[in-house]
Amino acid sequence: MKKNIRQGNQDFNMTEFQPAKGTRDIAPEEMRKLLFVFDACRKVFEKYGFAPLETPAFENFELLAAKGGEGVKDEIYFFRDKGGRDLGLRFDLTVGLARFVANNPNMQKPFKRYAFGKVWRYDNPQAMRWREFYQLDIDTIGSPQVEADVECLACFCECLDKLGIKNYYIRVNNRNLLKTFLISKGAQEKNLDDWFRIIDKLDKIGKEGVEKELAEKGFDKKIAKDVVSNLEKVSEEFGKLKNMEGYDEIIRMMELSKIYNISNKLKFDISLVRGLEYYTGLVFEVATRDLKLSLGGGGRYDRMIKSFGGPDLPATGISFGLSRLIQYMDEKNLFVLPAAKKVFVANVDETSKSYAIGVAQKMRSAGIAVETDSMGKKLGKQLEYASAAGIPFVAIAGESEIKLKSVKLRNMKTGKEEMVKIEKLPEMMKEK
């Protein structure tokens, strides 16, 4: 049904308004999945000592440019406020964290935080890619030790295990190791950023595509072919990298992963770059074996906080790919969500409505999710509503139930009914 509204002298048809490009409405059913994942992960985060931190949705543009470069203006939502200040919506949760730490240099170290919130990027919308989306991160600030990196990975793994995701693995690398390898093959250090950017596309464009792009960039074709043809071999023959920078950190990571019981998940891959140029050492990416989806990734970014004017503090962290994670759980039927509302208290007529509300309040006080009729529907329509909403139980209140200080409890799946005393109802519903 179309609904017209009037603004000044102009009429608008409400059906013409859609979410802005790259954004979407998240319906209750989908939002419950998102919060289910967050709640499950939050409990794991706090077991590992991570604490919640919330930072503003928009930041000074200078701060965003410090991480993303001046060209980031074309990739974010940039605006100028009424005071003439250049601002931008945050494009990840790490910028706010780095600013917070830079402004609080005396806080106890390590500082371990988790964050859950929306971020915005002015990308071209694609399947499972939006301009507005949620991120979920954990980070450790202040520790230069590999222990901090592996703890983040172990925490991530436990989250996936709690969510029922088993068929995953973690690609790990050290960018310093890749840098040393490239130089040993004849690459020039001044061009390493270009090498990294192109090698990072290996999964998308394949070996031939990488060789072609390297050649188009003007790199020696022989060196490019030698590098690309050896990436997989070097990953499998890790011991040959023993004297290269970053090797010892990978070895330490493997040792610690055994203690955390995640060693069977780790796979060394020297071609892993993780795109963003601020990574300084260890990098990691979590992916599924069957659907080849990336569920998250991260790494060490030891120079970021100093670049924001703060102290020279090491940092590491990992970000969850929430959209892909939920997509994977949907496809594998891993969501086992409890009913949003456990009981609907139905009133037989208007005279029993107050009684029904009182019953609902007693159950709510006991922590049970309950709904009552707020539209004056007949009993039959109330039952239809409860059935359509997937509410498993209906407590029917009428004249006879009021006299007995009871309700008639109906199991909506089996149709079975039983009379239950009000004082016993909350405890009974907790057990069902």
Provide a quick synopsis of the model.
The protein is α+β, with helices and mostly antiparallel strands and 432 residues long. It contains 15 helices and 18 strands. The strands form 4 sheets. Strands 3-7-8-13-12-11-9-10 form an 8-stranded mixed β-sheet. A 5-stranded mixed β-sheet has the order 15-14-16-17-18, sandwiched between helices. Strands 4-6-5 form a 3-stranded antiparallel β-sheet.
Low-confidence stretches: none
Spatially, the strands of the biggest sheet line up as 3-7-8-13-12-11-9-10
The CATH superfamily label of the largest domain reads: Bira Bifunctional Protein, Domain 2
The separation of the N and C termini measures: 40 Å
- CATH top level of the largest domain is Alpha Beta
How does this model look, in words?
- It is a single chain.
- This protein is an alpha+beta fold and 432 residues long.
- It has two domains: 28-331, BirA Bifunctional Protein, domain 2 (2-Layer Sandwich), CATH 3.30.930; 343-431, Rossmann fold (3-Layer(aba) Sandwich).
- It has 15 helices and 18 strands.
- The chain has helices spanning 28-47, 61-68, 94-103, 146-162, 175-184, 192-199, 202-216, 221-236, 247-259, 304-307, 322-331, 353-365, 379-388, 399-404, 425-431, and strands at residues 4-7, 10-13, 51-52, 58-60, 78-80, 86-89, 111-120, 132-141, 168-174, 266-268, 282-288, 294-300, 315-320, 343-347, 370-372, 393-397, 406-411, 417-421.
- It has an eight-stranded mixed sheet with strand order 3-7-8-13-12-11-9-10. Strands 15-14-16-17-18 form a five-stranded mixed sheet, sandwiched between helices. It has a three-stranded antiparallel sheet with strand order 4-6-5.
- Strand 11 (282-288) and strand 12 form a beta hairpin.
- The protein is elongated.
